[in-house]
Amino acid sequence: MDTTHTLEENDGRPSRRRFLRAIPVAAAGLGTSGLGSASDTSDLDRKGEFLPGITKWGDHVRLGNGRARSFTTGTRSGGPTHHGLYIERAVLDGLPSAGDLEAAGESRYSDKYGPTGRALPIHHRWSQEFFLPLPASTATPFTFLGVNWNPAGHPPVWSAPHLDIHFHMLPAATVDAITGPTAPSYELPAEYLPGGFVRSPVVDERVITDMGEHLVDPTVPEMNGGTFTNTLIWGASDPDGDGTAELTFVEPMLTREYLRAHSGTESRPIAQPTTYARAGTYPTRYSVRDVPGADAIAITIDSFESFEGDA
């Protein structure tokens, strides 16, 4: 099913990175386009549809009392504009507790690739996890979403019930094979660290099951005695096994309380590295959008730019 839509754009440019404005990119089902400056357009319409552009939808999964699905949007001329997770607001009610997940285990939540996900301990706390393919995503390196409902949060400071939305750049089978928590067995070059981000000081727990190493911004409120509501994590791993890591996922983390109260559109920049390991088209912003006509919320990575890389 295809649905057209409008999503707000922004012509601000994050600093501290090398980018090319006009590298053509091919997208399966989306055509070919060079990337240029974005311009402001109208936000989501009253019906909850997105205009203009072409949206390709993933299959629904069941989360709480509602449904969630992945989507990819491109311009009519073929440029990538958004990858995202679309959730009905009913998702935020009826979510399983950590005790529910532990008790039900694989009798109810047995398949991360299936419609009800898998229950497993991640970050030392029980989580409901989904692997959701991203449709028509070859214009960018993004391959699938790893979505986790964390009813008891997780250490060190993200203890509020929240959703983790991992936008992965590796094949699902590669991420599925990552186990943890453990210490990384590779180096992460400084030029691949996004501006302002650092590696966790807890070395033996940097690499997390089904995810990879987590990189954090130490200036966010929750890292300084404030309240966790909406934050961004960058992730890294060594997919080639050559001893050198690269950025492999970007992860908005949003509390259930924040999502329940959210209205309008909130967009934040995504910090960029000096250079990426691989040339490609990467997001420079993430956004949380209320879709009032559909009683839904869309969480997206967007404002894509084509970047130079070391390979």
Automatic annotation (TrEMBL):
It comes from the Archaea. This is DUF5602 domain-containing protein. It comes from Natrinema halophilum.
